[in-house]
Amino acid sequence: MELYHSIQLPGLTIPGNIILAPMAGYTDAPFRQICLENGAVFTYSEMVSAEACYRENKKTLGLLVRAENEDYLGVQIFTSNAKSAALAVKAILPSRPSLVDLNCGCSIKKILKSGCGAQLLSDPRKIRDIILAIRDVTDLPVTMKIRSGIDRESINYIEVADAGIEAGISLITLHPRTKSQVFTGKADWEHLEILKNHVPIPVIGSGDLFTPEDVKNMLTRTGCDGVMLARGAIGNPFIFNRTRQYLVTGREPPQVSIEAKLKGALKHIRLFIRSRSEERACIEFRKHFSAYTRYIPDGAALRRSAMQASSYAEYENLVNEYLASKRAEF
Ligand SMILES: Cc1cc2nc3c(=O)[nH]c(=O)nc-3n(C[C@H](O)[C@H](O)[C@H](O)COP(=O)(O)O)c2cc1C
Question: How far does residue 183's CA lie from ligand 1's centre (Å)?
Answer without folding.
Answer: 9
